[in-house]
Each structure stands twice: as C-alpha cells, then as structure tokens.
C-alpha cells in the first residue's frame, strides 16, 4: 500500500510539474503578471524586452509602444506590422482622457468604384498581386503618435530595434511554423 501511495505521489507531482512547465512555455499564451509601475506586453518576448529597455531609459509608454511596434516587424513579421495598419489608444493623464490614433491601411487614391467591385467578387485577385495592396498606415501612424506624445528622441528608441535587426534573433517555434505554412514563400525562387 505504501508503495502505491509513493508511485501515486510521484505521478501526481510529475503531472503537476509538467502542467507548470506548460504554463510558462511559448505555446501557452496567457501569463498573468502584476506590475506596479508599468508593463510591456506583446506577442514576442524579445520585442517586449525592448519596450522595457525603453522605459528603463526614461521613455514613456508611447516611446515603448513605438519601439515594440518596429521590433515586432523583425520578430513577428506575419502580423502585418509595417505593411499594415492599426489603432493606438493613448491615455492622456494630464487631461484625463483617452484618444485614438487611427492608422489603418487605405485603398490607393486612384482605386475606382469599378475596381473595388471587381476585387470584391474576385477572391484571388483581391488577396494576391498588386491589386491586393493597400497603402500601409502603420509607420506613419506610430511615428505621428511618437511625434505628438513621445518623450525620447526617435533615434534613441530605434537604436535597440536596429541592434536587434543587425544581430539577428532566435527563430521561435511560432515563427518557424508560420514560415513553414506560408505557401507564397515556396513560390519564390530565391
């Protein structure tokens, strides 16, 4: 009987420790964290670390967000990033209000209603090729947010991102899977 209890205890502890390991590994997306003075959150740890570095340099949340946004173009290229668009919500504590910066991608200025209807009804043409391209808004949007609300110089907040790009990075499991499942990459002769 004591032997059975011993084996059960070992199995219980082993499964419990396995569950804890699963909680902190990359495929587990939720990592509850409590912070007292600030927090940087993104889908990639290396990018989040750059945001923390910016805050430690005396930067504000906008400085960190801009640096993380550019870093994610390196660490998580499938997310759209620089070639896409988005929104940024900024809380202005002095004014006690929240503003939204809208930097969604937009259609080219010379796109006609006829072109739009054609693309709406032709899935492949709307998804692939030059007609699928929108005018990206991310770079202009996050740079405008930085210009208006950032604290550190753009050169200062971009330096860690530039270093990251020059030094390279470890390919995460997630990025490896994304690259392996991108059929368009296989079509490129290079």
- What overall form do the CA principal axes indicate? globular
In angstroms, what separates the terminal alpha carbons? 65 Å
Roughly how much helix do the residues carry, as a percent range?
40-55%
> Unreliable segments (pLDDT under 50, ≥5 consecutive)?
8-25
Summarize the structure.
The chain is mainly α. The chain has helices at residues 2-24, 45-56, 61-75, 113-120, 123-127, 138-149, 154-167, 173-180, 183-187; strands at 87-92, 97-102.
What can you tell me about this protein's structure?
By secondary structure, the chain is mainly alpha-helical. The protein contains nine helices and two strands; from the N terminus they run H-H-H-E-E-H-H-H-H-H-H. The chain has a two-stranded antiparallel sheet with strand order 1-2. Strand 1 (87-92) and strand 2 (97-102) form a beta hairpin. Helix 2 (45-56) packs antiparallel against helix 3 (61-75) and helix 3 runs parallel beside helix 7 (154-167). The longest helix has 23 residues, at 2-24. The chain is globular. Mean pLDDT is 78; it is low at 8-25.
């Amino acid at each position: 009987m004591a032997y059975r209890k011993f084996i059960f205890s070992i199995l219980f502890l082993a499964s419990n420790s396995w569950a804890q390991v699963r909680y902190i590994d990359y495929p587990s997306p939720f990592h509850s964290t409590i912070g007292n003075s600030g927090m940087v959150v993104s889908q990639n740890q290396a990018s989040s670390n750059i945001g923390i570095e910016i805050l430690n340099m005396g930067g504000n949340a906008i400085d960190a967000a801009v640096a993380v946004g550019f870093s994610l173009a390196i660490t998580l290229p499938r997310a759209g990033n620089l070639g896409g668009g988005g929104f940024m919500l900024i809380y202005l504590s002095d004014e006690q209000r929240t503003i939204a910066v809208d930097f969604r991608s937009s259609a080219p200025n010379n796109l006609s209603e006829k072109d739009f209807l054609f693309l709406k009804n032709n899935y492949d043409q709307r998804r692939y090729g030059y007609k699928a391209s929108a005018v990206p808004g991310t770079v202009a949007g996050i740079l405008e947010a930085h210009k208006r609300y950032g604290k550190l110089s753009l050169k200062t907040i971009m330096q860690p991102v530039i270093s990251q790009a020059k030094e390279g990075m470890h390919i995460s499991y997630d990025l490896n899977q994304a690259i392996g499942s991108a059929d368009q990459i296989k079509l490129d002769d290079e």
